[in-house]
Amino acid sequence: MITKLTHEYPDEEVYSILAKPVRKWFKETFGGFTPPQKYAVMEIHKGKNILISSPTGSGKTLSAFLASINELVLLAQKNALEDRTYVLYVSPLKALNNDIKRNLDAPLRGIEKIANLKQKIRVAVRTGDTTQSQRSSMLRKPPHILITTPESLAILLNSPRAVKMLENIKYVIVDEIHSLCENKRGTHLMLSLERLQNRVKKEFIRIGLSATIHPLEEVAQFLVGTHRDCAIVDVNFLKKIELSVVSPVDDFIYSSVEETQINLYKLLDDLISKHKTTLIFTNTRSGTERVVHHLKKMFGNKYVGVIGTHHSSLGKDIRLNVEEQLKKGELKVVVSSTSLELGIDIGNIDLVILLGSPKSITRALQRVGRSGHRLHETSKGVFVVTDRDDLIECVVLAKAARDGKLDRVHIPKNCLDVLAQHIVGMSLEKDWDVGEMFGVITKAYPYKDLNYDDYLNLLKYLNGEYGELQNRKVYGKIYFDGLRISKRGRMIRPIYYMNIGTIPDETAIKVFTKKGQFVGTLDETFMQRMKRGDIFVLGGTPYRYLYVRGMKLTVESAIGKRPTVPSWYSESLPLSFDLAMEINKFRKRMDEVLSKESKNKIIEALQKEFMINKTTANAIFSYFMQQKKYLRIPTHTHIIIEEFIDVDGRKNLIFHTLFGRKVNDALSRIFAYLISEEENINIGITISDNGFVLTLPRRKKVDYSTLYRRLCEADIISILKDSLEGTEILRRRFRHVAARSFLILRRYIDGRRSVGKQQMSAYFLYNIIKKIDPNFPIIKETYREILEDAMDLENTIKVVKWIKNRKTFIVLRNDRELPSPFAHNLIAGASDTMRIQDKKKLLQYLHEYVLRKIGEKT
Amino acid sequence: MKKSVKINGLLATNTGALISKEFVVIADLHLGYERAMVGSGLFVPQYQFKIIMEKLEMLPEREMMILNGDIKHEFSENNPQEWTETRKLFDYLSERFDKIIVVRGNHDNYLRTVTSKYKKVEFVDYLEIDDKIIAHGHKDFLPLHTKKLKIIGHEHPSVTLRDDVGVSLKLPCFLYNDELIVMPAFSPLAAGTDVTRCRKEDLLSPVLKRIGIGHLNVLAIDEEGCIELPEVYELVR
After folding, report:
1. Are A532 and A568 in contact (CB under 8 A)?
2. Pick from A214, A831, B117, B237: CA 20 to 30 A from residue A43's CA?
3. A695, A753, A769 ranked by CB distance to B36: nearest
4. Cα atoms in the 13 Å half-sphere on the side-chain side of A330
5. How far is the C-alpha of B167 from the C-alpha of A846, rounded, in Å?
């Protein structure tokens, strides 16, 4: 049962359970308890599982640790502290782990001094960075509090000596659970916890720490699993948040690019100078580099030595340095992509600037929440918008945040690749009965609905049953006879250790301009599809492929030229469906109000309701009015399709579907598939948050009523799976899933043989396995990951249902020669393709195309 | 779509074989490739032998079978898959053909150990037959410096067809003019040199490095049939 706590314990009651020295130290240091502490400490003391969601500076760490520290002190006083671990703390960030250790040292040393304890309470950090000697000493003298990462925990579970020290663990704390639950790292951790629980006699107490997230009930279930209770503490409302939206220019359309840029940096400079330390979030790594570059260039000496860059492509040392400087208050401004979103201590930030929409309400609040170090300080966030769509998005977002609306988190379920990894790990622990293992796995929330047949097929795959019988020894990672699972051979243990983890290896090609400026990164498989002279888009700008040396690609700017290959957009964040719907509702209200009210009344109302100034309200009004006058305002109830012939004579179908990029990724492929099948043509797909564009190679006439009918009859899931054949996303995700499931080993032992130029790509592997068994668990998981996690299948089906049930209408407008104002941003989105499904027809089509092109050139 | 096309008096099939009145020639089978991948951490299931056998069954009756190099993939002796499949291959070929000639390729060390057991098999470095020179192509030796029609393998050429919305398809192919035929790999797995994307330095065969591929015609092949294309330099323009 999940219950929300409403009972704040009074200070005296909390003090009463504390040991004398703990009480004394706490009173002297803090005076009293913070709100989350008032809720959590007693509950944990009573042995209850708990999820604590509270803002920065609210004493979250001690809320989680105080009860356990108290217990350790009581034991130490009696000289009863054993050489084993009592508290396990897990967080996704090594930097955070180091911070936590530091934050625990202060109270522990303080209490030890007051109490004059004979036994010292030991705290240790165990991650990939821990040295061998540190690890050995940890086994000799186990820490009472162990701090680690999800990957290191999985390794510890398979080390018999390490597990011994964890066998009577009493408290498990999971930090940053909001960021863990939405990806496979969290799935991986939850299985580790069930495995750990299976070895511990008594149920340990689970404590989750989270930033703003919704719905808390689901995250609590995620923390404790299916059959345990959990209490929820939500004190986020206590932190005051101040949000505002500003624009660098009054009118994006009539201001030149240079003007907008100059004004933007002037605006940033102005905001930075009015605050002590500013944190600027851009949405991409290349954006981060650009902002720092321009600030330094435009304002010279002002920013020397006091500006920092932080993103995941930078080296560890650089990032650590920036974090240290921030903590010490030495920096005036730090520009980050998403890497500083998580809770490491970054000192006193008094302003957060969001350059461009963060694409979800929850993310916006998490970012803004990084400012205002102490609980009573207001978190201040300013959205600086980059174009008209961005402006509307941020204005709607800010209001939704003020109204307390949040977008739903998506927790991946039934991930077969993570499960495969853990099954191998479990086989190394001991022998299992097939039902026994299933029982442990399904206690974890992400696997509560695991299909038993999928589980058996996975075991068969791990048993090497997809090759010839004599090869099972080679391909098998476990030994499974249908009833029992046991380990397979000596080589599996080192293979397992070397390949644990869910984060895919980045075979990232770094892209630089001729002048040496870093542009961004590209996936290797994507780059292999290109040749010299190709033009592709990265970070919103087109570049020409010049040459590649090793892992470095050199390009030159190709602004104004059109891409010759579909572009990949691995970096940009997708607009959440929930926020997209808020914007749809806003569009609908504007549509209604524009026909009824006067301009002045509307502008006044906008200013009041959305807390924006007159110029901003005017900009919004103009944008909507232009769209309404020229064509029509698209909403969730009226999807507009525009047709537009481009300079190359190709027909572009512009779909105004404001549902976020994930849904549009799926929706676009469904429509493309249906049209491609009907007309036997290849189709180019361009996807954005606000809609998508289908490019037809010739001036084809599309029969929309047939299209509608076929959409209503379509088996959506089946179409989506078929539409993924030959696509970029399928290649990438298959490689990731294959690596996690040990079908491809990232690190192997037998390095004797060089593959040379005959390197087989994961895609070849995919094609082979697909022919042998299309329901192969690795393929099944690839589809699941793409459809459910990358593409938001649930909401896509919802939208298609709306269209079928005529809750949403599709309006065709091909009466205009040029695209409407709302369409302009859609044309420059990111892309993929839909190929003709029939191989023979595809070959004939491509053959004809190539010959025709050559004929044209001669 | 045609299943075969005549080039230089020989019939090129969409399965990757060249057929004359007296003989059939295929190249680059790379048996045991999947097992070799395991050593690099890729657990590819066994797959290609079945396909290779199916393609062989489709070949017409001729007196002689010429295997133009790289029958097996590995250099070492440790690959049991290679040996079983190689033996099965030669068992089959011995039944179907009166004479089997193996032209040595760079991967064919130790192959003699297997072939010595078969009476019909002859092992050569190159073959001159019918005024044509057949060699693997990993060495640019003297016999290949001739105006006669040369038939080589080793390169595993392929071609990428692409349209303007970005759909692309990579297909194995024959490269040819009246003095040279470069054969595609008979193996469905071995990745090849993409002629639309490679520079001269990337070519594997020293023969091709000498002659150049720009003026070679392209015949792409697929299960569905043959696709006749113009010269390489036209495709990369």
Report:
1. no
2. A214
3. A753
4. 10
5. 9
Q: Which are the contacts of A595, defined by CB distance < 8 A and separation ≥ 6?
A: none
Q: Inspect the interface and report whether the beta carbons of A757 and B37 lie closer than 8 Å.
A: no
Q: What percent of chain A has pLDDT over 90?
A: 57
Of B46, B166, B191, the CB nearest to A684: B166
Q: How far apart are CA A604 and CA A671, in angstroms?
A: 41
Strand duo A123-126 + A145-148: pairing? parallel
Could you tell me which CATH class the domain B4-236 is placed in? alpha beta
Note the pLDDT tens digit of each residue in B33-80. Answer: 888 777 777 788 888 899 999 999 999 999 999 999 999 887 565 567
Q: Which of B3, B43, B54, B70 best probes binding to A when mutated, by most A CB atoms within 10 angstroms?
A: B43
Question: Which residue is associated with the tokens 């698209």?
Answer: A634
- A742·B165 Cβ contact <8 A: no
Indicate whether A758 pLDDT > 50.
no
A329-338 pLDDT, tens per residue? 899 999 998 8
Quote the pTM value: 0.88
Chain B residues whose CB is inside 8 A of the A842 CB are 167, 169
pLDDT mean over A753-775: 64
A697: amino acid identity, one letter: P
Task: Give the span between the Cα atoms of A350 and A370, in whole angstroms.
Answer: 9
* In chain B, where the domains are located: 4-236
pLDDT, position A650: 83
Per-residue confidence at A644, pLDDT binned at 50, 70, 90?
A: confident
Among A546, A771, A843, pick the best mutation site for testing chain B contact (most B Cβ within 10 A): A843
Bond before A542 cis per omega within 30 degrees: no
| d(CA B155, nearest CA chain A) in Å | 11
Position A759 pLDDT exceeds 70: no
Q: Residue A286 and residue B141: Cα distance in Å, rounded? A: 52
